[in-house]
Amino acid sequence: MKILIFASFIGFVMVTRGYAADAIKIGVVGPRTGPAAATGKAFEEGITLALDVLKASGGVLGRPVEVVFEDTGGVPEKAVAAFEKLATKDKVAIVVGESHSSSALAEIEVSNRYNLPFIVAEAWHDDIMKKGYPSVFRVGPSNSSVVLDCIAKFIEGAKFKKVFILAENTDWGKGIGALTESELKTKHIPYTTLSTDRENKDHYSELAKIKAEKPDLVMAYIYGFGLHSLVLQAKETGVTGLALIMDGAGPPSLWPEFKTNV
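^ thats the sequence. predicted structure below, dont judge the formating
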């Protein structure tokens, strides 16, 4: 169903933007390198499946589809340059993808400037949609929906008494961390928050602080392999015997590397 909607939307874009009857170019932005490179790999796998379906159905409006993938690496400046290239040099009809909120927040400005449709797949920050740019769409979750509809209800329902929030110092980490704090405050559940660097692989000092606080739940808002290090080191230091660690990032705990690393 989503693929059909996506194909219909591309068809609409092509008609309204007046492209010639050749291959429809779709731009993809996402991390092929950096701490979330595995997400870029997942993008590629999903795109391959979607292209197979589109090809089997005769393409879009009877035309083949060509994908141009630009690596953003989780770096906003690199993301802007990639989006600019797709808009001006590659002249794509639409751009999809991205998993880093900081990159997506930079990319929406380019999308708005060129009036180039941008479907955000995996970046969660609420501000991505807050400006109301008509060219920007989101098909994935937002920080507020994840916190309000899932995390906060889980914490309250499970009757956790004390929560420790360990959040990476990125737009996503700061945003989802602040929302969690707000909800816990509303529900009168005590919490402590600590910021960590997204690239950090050594969490021993942070885990010592967590252990001293004696929480019964740790919310780990860390994206990438830093999460794997945290879980492994938490076991080594005995934190997992003290508290349940809940991954607020999602994908890193589903990556094949998780089993190997943890």
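Residues 118 and 225 are 28 Å apart (CA to CA).
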